[in-house]
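Protocol step 4 of 5: obtain the predicted structure for the target chain.
Materials: sequence only (see below). No template structures provided, no constraints applied. The aim of this step is simply to have a reference model before the mutagenesis design in step 5. Sequence pasted as it appears in the construct record:
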Amino acid sequence: MEKNIENKTCRHCQNIFDITDLDLEFYDKISPVFNSIKYPIPSPTLCPECRQIRRMSFRNERSIYKRKCDKTWKDTISIYNPDSEYSVYEIGEWYSDKWSPLGYWMDFDFSKSFFEQFNSLMKIVPRMSLSVLENENSPFVNQTWHVKNSYLAFNCWFWENIFYSGISYNSNNIIDCYSVNWLENCFFCVDCQKSFLLFNSQNCSNCSDSKFLLNCVNCKNCFGCINLYNKEFYIFNKQYSKEQYFEKIKTLNKDTIEKSLQELFLKNPYKNLYLTNCENVIWDYIVDSKNCNHCFDVFSSSDSKYLFNIDSSVNNSMDINYGADWELMYDATSIAGYNLLFCHLVLGSNIFYSNLCINTSNLFWCVGLHNNESYCILNKQYTKE
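Step 4 output (structure tokens):
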């Protein structure tokens, strides 16, 4: 059982928060070792909520602007407004070999603080206009990987034909959906999984050919139902024959639907938490996970704490927002990989205090590297030794 070791006062909001024995074990586990010397990661001085606010302050997900690319001077769509102090390249130019982020290297100046120097590096290294990777025909999206033919979609991975949606993974042909996985041909769904032709529904999984469902599992041809499992041909939680079902559907109008839904949803109980195939987890919307504490919207993760919006496979990590497939992460957002500490928008391994580094490894205080660079400090190349 987790044991409280220390009560600390947040230096920002003054709230009291706990440091436990498992927290201290984690900080020791992730403390970096250089030349056989371990550099201990101290316990945080901010409470979990303030730490999350600080992480999210680096992330602009949904505000996009029209501006000029600072490389070609062509119009582009960007998360940086035209008056931003950053240099911004459109996606194709940023990933191209026409420039090298190593050309912006700095030597560490011991007369200045780290954050002062890192801020200077962030301002001079060109930034990609949108946070995207390997998209196709999707100029008005952000925080997306491997998407195609989509518009105004945010924080979505591995999908095609997605419109006006957010936090969607492995889905196709959806509109106005939020926090969904493995959907196809769906509209206006929230917190739904593995469904097909599902409309205006919430907290459902493995459903198809249905509308206006709440908290239903493995249902087909259902309309306006709540808390149903393994059912077919139900309307407002009442069973019909196949022929009766389709005849009844034809008679429904907007007023009838709204009144019946309101009555049905008010008289039926709601789940207090949405946990599926979980063991020893705390908080809400967690699936296929174990030993996760203070986590929300998490899939297939284990032995972690303070996670939010995790697509899959996060293990032995703490204070993470957005991402998938990682282990040994701490105080980071929009990342994937192994052993990433204090990072934002990073894909790689063994990276510390870095920003916007894609397919890289063994970095310290770097910005904008994306060509398999390794063993760099402040964007300056070093040998492994």
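Step 4 remarks: Residues 141-267 form one domain. The chain has a mean pLDDT of 93.
Proceed to step 5.
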